[in-house]
TrEMBL record:
Keywords (A to Z) from UniProt: Membrane, Transmembrane, Transmembrane helix
This protein's name: DUF1772 domain-containing protein
Transmembrane spans: 30-52, 58-77
Keyword check for Transmembrane: yes
Top-level taxon of origin: Bacteria
InterPro entries: Anthrone_oxy
Entries under Pfam families matching the protein: Anthrone_oxy
Length: 126
């Protein structure tokens, strides 16, 4: 059984359609993805400052860890895929989209871990 990406793509499409679907989806998701990493991360740091509870700090740091991952690894794949024309899509773009999905899974795991830490911190203060 293969682990699927949290951002799974439709496998029934041809490679050019597969790639053509990714590009507009990425453009729409970019502003939302940016806020998802920064706002909760900074909120966790503020909550740590107010409560002096390490769980809020850990959750904020884990959430903010999405940024270096995105800038150092995912951005390279994004640039490659965004520069590619639909007619150039093929086996190489398919491999890059699979790599992008795996990297996105890491981001999803970081967000999940951060959420658990935030919930733990919230439970401790209640």
């Amino acid at each position: 059984m293969r682990l699927r990406s949290a951002a799974e793509h439709n496998r029934s499409r041809s490679k050019p359609a597969f790639h053509a679907q990714w590009q507009p989806s990425y453009k729409r998701a970019l502003p939302l993805q940016s806020g998802i990493g920064i706002v909760p991360g900074l909120a966790g740091l503020v909550a740590c400052y107010v409560s002096w509870d390490w769980r809020w700090l850990a959750g904020g740091v884990v959430m903010l860890a999405n940024w270096p991952l995105t800038l150092l690894a995912i951005a390279l794949v994004n640039k490659y895929l965004m520069a590619m024309q639909e007619c150039e899509a093929g086996a190489e773009s398919r491999v890059m989209l699979i790599q992008w999905g795996r990297l996105h899974n890491v981001r999803s795991a970081l967000r999940a871990a951060s959420t658990v830490l935030f919930l733990w911190g919230f439970a401790a203060t209640s």
